Amino acid sequence: QKEVEQNSGPLSVPEGAIASLNCTYSDRGSQSFFWYRQYSGKSPELIMFIYSNGDKEDGRFTAQLNKASQYVSLLIRDSQPSDSATYLCAVESGSARQLTFGSGTQLTVLP
Amino acid sequence: GAGVSQSPSNKVTEKGKDVELRCDPISGHTALYWYRQSLGQGLEFLIYFQGNSAPDKSGLPSDRFSAERTGGSVSTLTIQRTQQEDSAVYLCASSGWTSGTYEQYFGPGTRLTVT
Fold it and tell me: A43 vs chain B: nearest CA distance in angstroms?
């Protein structure tokens, strides 16, 4: 069974700090990896998509993928109170295009 | 439209009734997904459509659930003989490549309550 694990948190960081969110997955055939932000009562919003080993940067967000170790992380630099949300990791495996989601990490950025 | 739309936004139904949920994806997006999210839980995959290919139905929890996508656009998710455990937010997402950039957007969801 394909599993995606995230620390549920809550994770609290002070404003301006770097928030680090981690995700591990069980299926070595996984090919694409996604990070979503979900505010309470709202739908998930895709913030990062990565499929190659290494780092991918987009503004204050950096996704880091290590397929050998089967983990993907999300770094949020200069965290803002508006970044407070639940962050969901999702993994797409092989020819099956369904996404398997982790249970999410709740992040709170303290002003 | 500017985004993925879903209707109805809320649906309360009695146990045993059938319900139909609708999703209008972003024009040009070839992939369409249905998920559901129970209170405080992660997202559970239900079904995936890609272009004209046969859908991936591997996430449908029982044969009471079915979905179709007409003309590669609008999709409907039908739940027959609803049960209380079907209560959840049903989310639709569409995805595709636009000008070399991958896009994926979720709709606002349909909150289903089975009484």
Answer: 6
When computed from its CA atoms, the radius of gyration of chain A, rounded to whole angstroms, is 13
pLDDT > 70: percent of chain A: 95
Most B CBs within 10 Å, among A2, A97, A100, to test the B interface: A97
Which residue is closest to A106 within chain B, CA to CA? B40
Distance of CA B48 to the CA centre of its chain: 9
Please give the pLDDT value at position B31.
92
Task: State the burial class of residue A70 (Cβ atoms within 10 Å of its Cβ: 0-12, 13-18, 19+).
Answer: middle
A41 sits in the region (left: phi over 0; alpha: psi -120 to 50; else beta) called: left
Nearest Cα neighbor of B32 from B21, B42, B18 is: B21
- With tokens 């089975």, the residue in question is B114
What does DSSP assign to residue B56?
B
CB contact under 8 A, B48 and A45: no
**CB-based contact, A49 to chain B, within 8 Å:** yes
Give the residue from chain A lying closest to B95, CA to CA.
A46
pLDDT band for A95, please (50, 70, 90 cuts): low
